[in-house]
Amino acid sequence: MRVSLDASDEPQLSAGAAGADRVRALATVALDAMAQTAAARTGPIPAGGLPAVAAALDGIELLPHQGVGEAAALDELTRILTAGSVDPAHPWCAAHLHGPTLAVAAAADLVGSVLNPSMDSWDQAPVASALERELTATLARLCFPERDQPDAVVTSGGTESNLLGLLLAREHGRTRLVCGRNAHHSVARAAWLLGLPAPRLIDTDAGRMRADLLDPTGDEVVVATAGTTDTGAVDPLPEIAAAARRAGAWLHVDAAYGGAALFSDRLAPRLAGLEHADSVAVDLHKFGWQPIAAGILATRNPITALDVRADYLNAGDDTEAGIPDLLGRSIRTSRRPDCLKIAVTLRALGRRGLAMLVERCCALAQEVAREARRHPGLHLWGEPTLSTVLVRPVRGDVAAVRRRLLEDGTAVVGRATIDGQVWLKLTLLNPRATIDDYRGLLDLVASTT
Fold this sequence. Notes:
The chain is built from 13 helices and 14 strands. 40% of the residues lie in helices and 14% in strands. The protein has three domains: 16-85, no CATH class; 110-349, Type I PLP-dependent aspartate aminotransferase-like (Major domain) (Aspartate Aminotransferase, domain 2, 3-Layer(aba) Sandwich), CATH 3.40.640.10; 351-447, Aspartate Aminotransferase, domain 1, CATH 3.90.1150.10. It is α/β, with parallel strands linked by helices. The strands form three sheets. The protein has a seven-stranded mixed beta sheet, with helices on both faces. Strand 11 (378-380) and strand 12 (388-393) form a beta hairpin.
C-alpha cells in the first residue's frame, strides 16, 4: 500500500492499520536520512565544537506560520540530529555509560511509541501491565534468587532507582545515609530530596569503599556501589552486607552499571553479596543496550510504600473487583511502556546472549588495559573491574587533551579525578569492538598536545 507524504496531506495518527502504514512510510524517510547522513560522518562527534553544532540550526524556524510537511520536517531535522550527535556505536565514543542500542530494542521502542500505553492504570495498558509484572518478577529473581517474593519496579534509570531505594529505607525507619566517597552524585541528591541529612562519607581504597571504616548504625541506610562511574570498581559487598546486617541497617546497592553482570555465570561472582541487599538499582540502558530509559529497582520484599489512591485511576471498588492497581508501581503517573523493549530483548537474546555481550566488553577492557600498560606514552590507573579503563598521557595537560579530541571530532573520552589527579576514561560498551579499534586511540591520546 502506497502512502502519500505530500506536505499538503492531513496529519495522520499512528494507531490502527492506517496509522501503522503511515508510520512505516515516515520511518523509511527517517531511516534513509539517518543512513545517508551517517555515511558522511568522519568521527564519533561533530568537529568544530560548540559553534559548529549551533550553526546547524541557523535558519530553522521551529514554529513557522505554515508547516513544511511531515516528510520534509522529519528528513530535515533527522539529518541535522544525525550529523550533530555523538555516535555511541563508534568505538572511539567511549566517555560515558552511554552505549549503542540493540536494533531489536529500538524497534520494540517504536512499537511502544505507536501503541502508547500509559502505565498508570490497567484500562490504559491491559496487556502491558501484565507484561511489566512478568518482567519485574523475572529481574527481581535475578537479583534475589533465593527469596520467595522479591519485587521490582521499572524506573527511568539509576537516579530514580536510588531515590526509590532510599525512600523505601526511610519508610522503614532508616533516616541517615552512609556511603563511600565513590558513590554516585544521585545518592546525595536523593538525601536532599527526601529531607534527610547529607550522607556520612567513607574513605575509599583503589576506588572501593573501605568496609573496615563503615561501622553503621540501625537507623542508617548503607549505600554500596557495584560499578562506580569513575572506575567501574565494585565495593566489597560481602563485608558491607555483613556490617549492615549486624547493625540492622538497610543496604541499598547501586548496581546501575555492574548489575547486568548477573546475567553471566563467569562475571556474577564479582557481585557476590548483592543478594543480601534490601534494594538494588540496575540500569539496562548501560549494560543491556536498551534505548534510554530502562532502569529497574529490585527489592528483597514486596513494595508497598508507594501505594497511593486516585479514584479515577485505581478506585477501591475496582481494586476489590480484581483490576490491577498500577499507580503504586512508580513515583511517576504517566509513564511509557519501557517494559516492552526490555522484555523483547530478554526473550530474543536470553540470559546467555546478554551474558556474552557483557563478557565481551569486560574482556575487551582487559585487552585495552594490557596495551596501555605496555605503551611508553601512557600511564594506566589500574586493572579494570568491569569495562572502564583509565589512562593518562605521560606528557601534556590531560584535560586539554580531552578537549582537543572533542573539538577535532576525533574521539569522545571521559574524565575522572582520582586523588586529585585527572585521568582519561574509556568506558567500553560496544560488544562488537575489538582491540584493533583502540590501538590507534591509545596512540592518539599519548601524542595529542
